[in-house]
Amino acid sequence: MSIIKTIGKPFFGQKALQRFFSKMQLFALYGQSYGLGATVSSSGEKNVLKLVDKINRNKKELLIIDCGANVGDYSADADALIETNKKIVALEPVKDTFEKLEKRFKDHNNISTRQIGLGYKTETLTIYKSAAESKHASLYPRNMDHWDTSFSLNLSEDISVQNLTDFMAEQNIDHIDLLKMDAEGHELSILKGSQELIKQQKIDFIQFEFGVCNVDSKVFFKDFYSLLNGNYHILRILKNNFYLVDKYDERLEVFLTTNYLAVSDRIFNQHKSEIV
User: Fold this and answer.
1) Cα–Cα distance, 223 to 232 (Å, whole number)
2) 1 in a domain, yes or no?
3) How far apart are CA 273 and CA 53, in angstroms?
4) Residue 39's pLDDT is what?
């Protein structure tokens, strides 16, 4: 950092260069895969599925939990990309969205659907949405008018939320190979309600989003790091690989939608050369 400060000193803080530095900031963020987590095709999420498949190729059956499945695009990708025998459980709490999800996979033997969300504890909560089948439905009354008023979450409904430990006990599940979470800002609450599972490393891979939603849920990346560090290694998902976040730094607090992968220490230590 001292070299950067020395070289850049004549340019830093100059009003005439602020737009240039703003563009360069965005360029650098995109280069690190920040803000590219909105879709499976651009985020590198397919690399996670391929990695999970490769590491578990000799396993009898994989279990994948797709939390916040929406209409099932991620579940469909998991079904197509993972060659190992697998069971995918797609969870979606919003009624209209779930009906589409259920209809889409009604003839898939290895994909089951449940109209439920995950959270800190088992309870009924209000979810906010902009339309009947909103991709931005959130448990937080987010204000997104600065994007466009069409994103306003002016509709709501009550949904069922279940603690992951309770869900696993109900479904007679002892171990999860991959937990994918797209819970629009509620991911940390899910993990806080699963601390015993985390300590016991009952989940091999945890994929979670961090970004714009966390402005409204008032969650920092440091919260994820503190909760998972010691039992999991955290990696930022890139288009073609993964980047190990081996130390917390305030510069990680980037509120642009980005996907991360937490790998249990047991799995990471066994397969480090295949992961990073």
Assistant:
1) 14
2) no
3) 15
4) 66
Residue 2, domain member (yes or no)? no
Tokens 């979470």 sit at which residue?
181
Judging by beta carbons within 10 Å of its beta carbon (0-12, 13-18, 19+), is residue 226 exposed, middle or buried? Answer: exposed
CA 15 from chain centre, in angstroms, equals 37
Conformation bin of residue 121: beta by default, left when phi > 0, alpha when psi is -120 to 50: beta
Q: What's the confidence (pLDDT) of residue 132?
A: 62
Cβ atoms of 225 and 245 closer than 8 Å: yes
Determine the Cα–Cα distance for residues 38 and 211; give it in Å rounded to an integer: 10
Write the CB contacts of 222 (distance below 8 Å, at least 6 apart in sequence): 248, 252, 253
Query: What is the tally of structural domains in the chain?
Result: 1
Helix 73-81 and helix 45-55, axial crossing angle in degrees, nearest 10: 40
Is the sign of the CA dihedral 105, 119, 124, 68 positive or negative?
A: negative
pTM: 0.94
Supply the CATH number for residue 264's domain.
3.40.50.150
What is the average pLDDT value for the chain, to the nearest integer? 93
- 4 falls within a domain: no
CB 236 within 8 A of CB 243: yes
Q: What is the pLDDT of residue 194?
A: 96
Residue 71 covered by a domain:
yes
Closest CA relative to residue 236, chosen from 267, 268, 261: 261
| Domain membership of residue 89 as a residue range | 15-275
The answer to whether residue 82 scores a pLDDT higher than 70 is: yes
The position carrying tokens 């109209």 is 115
How do beta strands 176-181 and 203-210 pair?
parallel
Looking at residue 41, its pLDDT comes to: 64
Token code pair at residue 276: 């990073």
Q: Could you tell me the pLDDT band of residue 237, with boundaries at 50, 70 and 90?
A: very high
pLDDT in tens, 119-133: 999 999 999 988 766
